[in-house]
Amino acid sequence: MSEKIAVYPGSFDPITKGHLDMIERAAKIFDKVIVCVMVNSSKEYLFTRDEREQLINDCIAEMKNVEVDSYDGLLIDYVKLRNTNIIVKGLRAFLDFEYEFQMALTNKHLDNDIETMFMISSNKHSYLSSTLVKELVKFQGDVTEFLPKNVERAMQKKYEEGYIR
Predict the structure, then answer these.
(1) Which of 60, 78, 100, 138 could make an SS bond with 71 (beta carbons 3.0 to 4.6 A apart)?
(2) pLDDT tens-digit profile of 20-79?
(3) Alpha-carbon distance values, 57 to 61, 147, 150, 158 (Å)
(4) Catalytic residue (one of 25, 92, 108, 158)
(5) In what order do the strands lie in the sheet with 66-71?
């Protein structure tokens, strides 16, 4: 039987406890999970690609079947490059589903072998987003329930350096 490898893509700017919950759950289902930091040149990020990769690596250090990578291009090209056909996406709300369904159908159209597996977020993370966290940090709100400690410290540093306004 061949190894089942899943790609969990996202911008992870920053990675949240909701993302980590999804990674942990996917790691129980698949032999290997590749967390892929996607890079979109038309998007502005708080953290660089390298910073995002490092923050995620620090968070998943104990997860033996999870690795972190990054890619600048079409997700399906990356999935094929990694010799798999499985994409894992998290869904928080119906709005997520609408967008992710459109993306999954597009990927399926581009390559019929690509399969997208949807995982519903845990109740305690169903409203959580990186955008929400950045907004909280901007107004000095408490984000301890939403972020791993290393990410919380990195966000605070970005705030102190004036990157979050």
Answers:
(1) 78
(2) 999 999 999 999 999 999 998 888 899 999 999 999 999 999 999 999 999 999 999 999
(3) 6, 14, 11, 19
(4) 92
(5) 66-71, 32-38, 5-10, 86-91, 115-120
**CATH level 3 topology of 5-126:** Rossmann fold (3.40.50)
pLDDT of res. 1: 58
- Catalytic residue status for 43: yes
**Spatial contact of 116 and 83, defined as CB atoms under 8 Å apart:** no
- Give the tokens for residue 44: 């502005």
17, 52, 130, 134: which one is catalytic? 130
Task: Please count the other Cβ atoms lying within 10 Å of the Cβ belonging to residue 85.
Answer: 19
Q: What single-letter DSSP state applies at residue 164?
A: -
How far apart are the C-alpha atoms of 118 and 101, rounded to whole Å? 9
Calculate mean pLDDT across residues 13-26: 97
